[in-house]
Amino acid sequence: MFIVLDDTGYGHLGCYGSPIKTPNIDSLAKNGLLYNNMHTTALCSPTRSCILTGRNHHSNHVGCLTNGSTGFPGFDGYMPFENGTMAEILKENGYNTYCIGKWHLAPEETMSAAGPYDRWPLGRGFERYYGFLGGDTHQYYPELVRDNTQTEPEKTPEEGYHLTPDLVDQAKSMIADSKQIAPNKPFFMYFAPGAMHSPHHVPKEWADKYKGKFDKGWDAYRKEVFEKQKKLGIIPKNTKLSRHDPDVQDWNKLSKKEKKVFARMMEVFAGFLTHTDHYIGELMDFLKKIGEYDNTLIMLISDNGSSAEGGPTGSVNECRFFNNLPDTVDEIYEKLDEIGGPECFNHFPWGWTHAGNTPFRRWKRETYRGGISDPFIIHWPKGFKSKGKVRTQYTHAIDMVPTVLEAAGIDPPGSIKGITQSPVEGVSLVSTFDNEKDSGKHVTQYFEMLGHRSIYHDGWRAVCPWPGTSFTESGRKFGTPIDDKTLTELDIKGWELYNLKEDFAETKDLAQKEKDRLIAMIGMWYIEAGKYNVLPVDGRGTQRIAEERPQIAGPRSRYILYSGTQAIPANAAPKILNRPYSITAEVEIPKGGADGVLLSMGGNDGGITFYVQDGYLCYAMNYVTMDYFYVKSDKKIPDGHHFLSMEFKPTGKADPMKGKGTPGDVKLMVDGKVIGKGKFPVTTPIRLGQGAQMQVGKDAGSSVIPDYKPPFSFSGKINRVIVDVSGEEVAYYESAMKIFLMKQ
After folding, report:
1. Backbone angles phi, psi at 222, to 5 degrees
2. What pTM does this model have?
């Protein structure tokens, strides 16, 4: 069983010195092995590809997020079939294979009902799947998939629904389904709950357990955890705590309001982690109950360091980060009681990120140790005798697969389904299980993430930070591109050098004293980069998400959509942002009228909705919860067969870097006749909402606007919906519909 936590830093778990209570995870460490030198890639999709294949992330073509892919071999997001997964290998060796929770390993353009499904979990060796395909999801209103089909939670948040316990229940059921019939058949489970990624969602009573626990701030947290780590033997006694990060505010200089807001956000995060630990405990109890706990090889890891995506103030809506819109402390303060609940998509400020990665510097997305050094625990009572020990050998996520194969007595296959397999690039850790003095086999490891580079070799690390040692010191923002001139300058004077044998937390740069060693390691980085498809070095961040990617269907200006179909993910949906567009629904309205959603996209963190309410035709945009814009018809819609339309025409230019999409005029029409007008002063520029999906006839999940309760399904009949992005004006709809259909 692989248990993959998200965005959990080196200093977050109780067994790694944190004050956050994680008794069940701590128990795995107490009765197993805790590794203090595990490394990941600094980002989720890339690390998960390593965990499942035993190959480096660029070898897996997952050099970045799958939704940040580019056309270069190491970055296209299509994990090659010659890099077989743990599930594919074990399935051929008689195992049941189950995947639960976050996937984020399918190219974004394949994640619609049109497929192809070959890089979904069932296409990569898993027999059963229940979870979400993207990078994160609403914990109360998740975008769920069972096997290859979308599904909805069986309960609502008001009825007590939360994703983590749902995933645990599904995990137990899958194992039980097989064990009650074939009790001796082994299984492999990949359990990835999505916690602790944003949104930090947890019932209020869990967060309230930590009231006042973080009032002293992030600097005090770092010192407390650092001393505990030394006491527990997690870090060497001579370790020095890395510096206070220049991007992080001095807690003592914050206002009372800021301290209150930031402390509460950490209380929610801590409650979320303890809540997650509790349900991991339920899963472990189930293994004990069926007699499989001691003989199940369990590996628990985080996919990268703690995340700084909340920015300096944190956020109540992380979608703003992707639209270049900052939150304000005043706004967060107004929603303080809602943080952690279904109305927010919250993330804490990066002061807590820095603290969560104690004793290291920086965070997720960067290849300093704060981004790549992560918790790792192995528990297997019947497999080794050692208990409660710390292992110091250098390890990387690519080492998990070869470790399992050696432990299970399985050789890496030469081929899978007729496809010749590439060499596994990781090394087995089995030799470290009962031998703490084992020197370890992992001698060299490169790193690259969003232009941030580093390399480890035999106890030394060279690091070339990008956009710099900090945003404050470099004067550059996250996602700043790297041109050829800049890359040359970085290679001349941008690298740092650390001796990890004497400087565990990388606090003393030896670049000037050890120039020859540094030059050799820079050269070594380029050798590794050539070997594993790492080039070109691309420093862009959110700009990658906006790039056009190959689609299953060619470009078109009109889309015909139908009710009763699965939701369409953003990458496959009509692109309506920053351009003229129209939506037309051909409907049958019964006597007495009909209400409900005709078409929606997004959720309570941002989106658009075209709907009928109290008989009036309406169109609304949730501008990432910063504002809501509405247009409503002047009169009610009569009974009968009608074409209900909205039309958006831009009246100005977009400024995405400042979080502003194009302003525009909106018209509402029935059978081509205007019955309502309005103006949108600004629109969403880049991304309507996290995991935004287009839905016909409903607004399932969290509703785009608070004016109705989800799913607010349309009570009449929808024959079809036409989304037009050609820029042509809507007119005479009986004829227009015939034209639309002929052009498909």
Report:
1. -60, -45
2. 0.94
